[in-house]
Amino acid sequence: MNILWDEPTRALVEETRDFVKNDVPADLLRRMDREEVRFAKEFIQAAARRNLLGLRFPKQYGGRGLPWTSEIAAIEEVGVLGTALGCNFVMPSIVGEALNTFGTEEQKKKYLAPIIRAELFSAEALTEPRGGSDFFGATCTAVKDGNEFVLRGYKRFVVGGEGADVFLVYARTDDQAPSHKALSAFMVERSERLKVEYLYGLMGTRGGGTARIMFDDLRVPQENLIGPLNGGGLVFNRMMVPERLTSAAGALGAGRAALEVAARYTNTRKAFGQKIREFQGVNFQVAESVTRMDAARALTWVAAKKADSGEDPRRLVSEAKKMATQASWDTVNAAMQIMGGIGYTDVYPIERLLRDGRLSLIWTGTNEIMNLLIQHEYYKELEKHGPAGRDIEGDAISTDSEAEKVFE
């Protein structure tokens, strides 16, 4: 995609590649996968020293004021490390989106700037034990009491929760309102009444600090409300842009990395007297993988461009998340098939990327939810604007057979 990059983006990609190559020891990845490291604070701090966190946010808070198109290019480079470090890298972008868009100046100074500098570690508390895709069915409550809210309930699958100092939390603040108008968003600081449990035996994405958290009558000052009271739905809808674009970009890096490992393997491994890359059963899989990854990358770039435009990017962002994560999953599977039995061992990182990649089809909204959003937005656009160009319905030979166009 470098043909579409401007010079600042090219420079950023090279800078990020240098960080990934030289500042992230391979032993860190191994220790995380063995869960000897539960949360890689040093990695986040190293990225902050390079000024690579919160790239889109204003310089006055420590960001670089870059567009989405630049940020996704950088995230792809970090994505080669897998989903745990990838998610840790983008969390300042995700939580920061709420602060930058809906936060007060005081909140930005208190939270956004320190998060970008890795002086505070953040996490988003979204999913509940009974929730999953049913976000607006959240049962966690925040009851107003004077100048504070009393927070009660549970959140789970909080990536980064193990090491987070502050959490973006959605809670129900109006039991009488429709679900999409009943939630509010808060910045919640870690305290004795915020219990964190690192308890999941994850298939992959290990060492990313995924935790369950419990709020035991935790008091949150009203100045920590993000956006309007009962405006959690507004915040959530905005947050789905960074959640899903970062998921797409990270998946591109993982798929690319697996393909590179497998392709190099085919150029050295011999069978029946020749390199296995010379067999069509192998090289056609490489060709298919290259094509789908390039297609997914192009769609993700267009979605980022749409997000930069200020127009509603919901459909394209959902398409990018769905296509990039599926393309990455298919490519990692192809890489394992190409490499055969050795790909199924931990001699190569393909099996870890496969374990990591399975989660990408689930988190930030399952790909089935992406389908729901895509068709909904498409129908809405079609009903509002009609055909994008010529209406070809009238070009059929028997177009005047009105009796055949009865639908009731």
Residue fraction in strands:
5-15%
Report the uncertain regions.
none
Shape: globular
User: What is the count of distinct domains?
Assistant: 3
Tell me which CATH architecture of the largest domain applies here. Up-down Bundle
CATH domain topology of the largest domain: Butyryl-CoA Dehydrogenase, subunit A, domain 3
Return the CATH class of the largest domain: Mainly Alpha
Any idea what the radius of gyration is? 23 Å
Concise structural overview:
By secondary structure, the protein is an alpha+beta fold.
What does the model show?
The structure is a single chain. With 408 residues, the chain is of the alpha+beta class. It has three domains: 120 residues, Orthogonal Bundle (Butyryl-Coa Dehydrogenase, subunit A, domain 1), CATH 1.10.540.10; 109 residues, Butyryl-CoA Dehydrogenase, subunit A, domain 2; 150 residues, Butyryl-CoA Dehydrogenase, subunit A, domain 3 (Up-down Bundle). It has a four-stranded mixed beta sheet. The longest helix is centred in the middle third of the chain and has 35 residues.
List strands and helices in order, with pairings.
Elements: H1 7-22, H2 26-33, H3 41-49, H4 68-79, H5 83-102, H6 105-116, E1 122-125, E2 141-145, E3 148-158, E4 166-172, E5 183-189, E6 194-197, E7 211-221, E8 225-226, H7 232-266, E9 270-271, E10 274-275, H8 280-309, H9 314-339, H10 350-360, H11 367-385
Helix pairs in contact: 1-4, 4-7, 5-6, 5-7, 7-8, 7-9, 7-10, 8-9, 9-10, 9-11
Pick out its properties:
408 residues; alpha+beta; Butyryl-Coa Dehydrogenase, subunit A, domain 1; Butyryl-CoA Dehydrogenase, subunit A, domain 3; four-stranded mixed β-sheet; four-stranded antiparallel β-sheet; 11 helices; 49% helix
